[in-house]
User: Which sequence fits this backbone?
C-alpha cells in the first residue's frame, strides 16, 4: 500500500455483480484508476479482510464506492463501517441509489421469499423443511448467518451518502466521469447525482411527434414490428425516457429496446413512477373511464414497469422502507 495515493474501497451489498463487472469493463481505463489510487477493499477482485478496513483510521479512505441494496446484517455492518472509514461514500448503481432490481422484493414478504426459495421451488429438495436461521449448531459447531431483513433499503436509508452514480450498471463513461471528478476535486454539491441533468428523451434521436398519437392499448416490444427510427411511445410501447436521467448513451434505444429507467429520475422529481405515469397518460385514448381502463389494463406489471429500479426509494413504498427493520 502507498500512503500518498488516495485510498479507495469498492464494496457490494445486495448486488448481482453487474456493477463490479462495470468497473472491470473500464478495460485499460481501470489500469489508470488503479495506478492513481490505493485500493484497500474490493472483495470481488482482491483478498482483503474486513479486519484490514477496521484497522484503518476513521476517514482514512478517500472514497468508498458501494453497490447493491441493503438487505442483511452483514451489508448494513460493512456499509456503516465504510461510512466511518471513508471521507466520501458514493452509492454506485441503481441498487444502492434507489433499491434497484432487488428492491422489487419489497412487493412481497420475507416469509414468501423463504417459502419460494427453500420450500416450494421445483428444484428444491428439502424434506426437513429447513429455512435459514441466524444461529445454529452443526455437529457441535456453532454457525451463524447474517440476518435477512424484512425490507430492501437504499444505501441512503441506512447511512449518509455523499454522491450517487446512477445506472444498472453505470456506463463506463459515467464511472470515468465520476472518478475523474473525485480525483480532481471537481465535485458537485454533496448529495448530487453525478451525471446528466437532461432527460433521456432530450438526447434520443428518434422521431418524436409534435402531438402524441393516442393508443387504445400498449404493446411489448416483441408484439409489434418496432420502427427503429420512431419514438417507442409513439408506437404504443412504454419507454421510460421522459422520466429517466440521460447519460447512458441511449444504450437500450440503440438496441431497439425501450428504456426501462435504470438511470433513475431527474433532479427535482421525487417519484420516477409518478412522473412516468403522467407522461404515459398523454398517449392513452378513450372517451370513457371504461375505455381508459381497458388501455391501462394492457400495461402488464405496472409496478415493474413504472418502478423497476426504485421501489424502496419511491414515494408509494418509501414509508415502509424507511423503517429499517430486521
Ligand atoms: S445496479 Fe444493476 S448491475 Fe448493479 S448490482 Fe444492481 S442489478 Fe446489478
Ligand atoms: S420516449 Fe423513449 S424512444 Fe421516445 S424519445 Fe424518449 S427515449 Fe426516445
Ligand atoms: S436506455 Fe434506460 S434502461 Fe437502458 S441503459 Fe439507458 S437509462 Fe438504463
Assistant:
Amino acid at each position: 500500500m502507498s500512503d500518498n495515493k488516495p485510498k479507495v474501497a469498492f464494496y457490494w451489498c445486495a448486488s448481482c455483480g453487474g456493477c463490479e463487472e462495470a468497473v472491470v469493463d473500464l478495460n485499460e481505463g481501470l489500469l489508470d484508476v488503479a495506478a492513481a489510487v490505493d485500493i484497500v477493499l474490493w472483495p470481488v477482485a482482491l483478498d482483503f479482510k474486513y479486519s484490514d478496513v477496521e484497522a484503518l483510521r476513521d476517514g482514512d479512505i478517500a472514497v468508498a464506492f458501494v453497490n447493491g441494496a441493503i438487505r442483511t446484517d452483514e451489508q448494513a455492518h460493512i456499509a456503516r463501517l465504510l461510512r466511518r472509514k471513508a471521507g466520501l461514500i458514493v452509492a454506485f448503481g441503481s441498487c444502492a441509489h434507489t433499491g434497484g432490481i432487488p428492491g422489487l422484493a419489497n412487493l412481497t414478504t420475507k416469509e414468501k421469499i423463504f417459502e419460494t426459495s427453500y420450500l416450494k421451488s421445483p428444484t428444491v429438495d428439502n424434506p426437513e423443511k429447513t429455512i435459514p436461521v441466524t444461529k445454529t449448531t452443526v455437529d457441535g459447531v456453532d454457525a451463524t448467518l447474517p440476518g435477512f431483513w424484512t425490507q430492501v433499503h437504499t444505501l441512503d436509508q441506512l447511512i449518509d451518502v455523499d454522491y450517487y452514480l446512477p445506472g444498472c450498471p453505470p456506463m463506463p463513461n459515467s464511472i470515468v466521469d465520476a472518478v475523474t471528478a473525485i480525483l480532481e476535486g471537481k465535485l458537485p454539491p454533496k448529495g448530487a447525482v453525478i451525471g446528466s441533468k437532461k432527460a433521456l428523451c432530450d438526447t434520443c434521436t428518434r422521431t418524436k411527434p409534435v402531438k402524441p398519437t393516442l393508443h387504445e392499448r400498449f404493446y411489448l416490444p416483441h408484439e409489434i414490428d418496432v420502427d427503429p427510427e420512431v419514438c417507442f411511445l409513439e408506437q404504443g410501447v412504454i419507454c421510460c425516457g421522459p422520466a429517466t436521467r440521460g447519460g447512458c448513451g441511449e444504450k437500450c434505444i440503440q438496441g431497439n429496446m425501450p428504456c426501462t429507467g435504470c438511470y433513475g429520475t431527474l433532479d427535482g422529481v421525487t417519484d420516477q413512477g409518478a412522473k412516468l405515469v403522467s407522461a404515459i397518460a398523454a398517449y392513452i385514448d378513450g372517451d370513457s373511464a371504461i375505455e381508459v381502463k381497458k388501455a391501462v389494463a394492457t400495461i402488464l406489471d405496472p409496478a415493474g414497469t413504472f418502478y423497476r429500479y426504485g421501489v424502496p426509494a419511491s414515494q408509494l413504498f418509501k414509508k415502509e422502507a424507511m423503517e429499517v427493520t430486521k
Observations:
- The chain has three domains: 7-101+150-195, 110-148, 200-309.
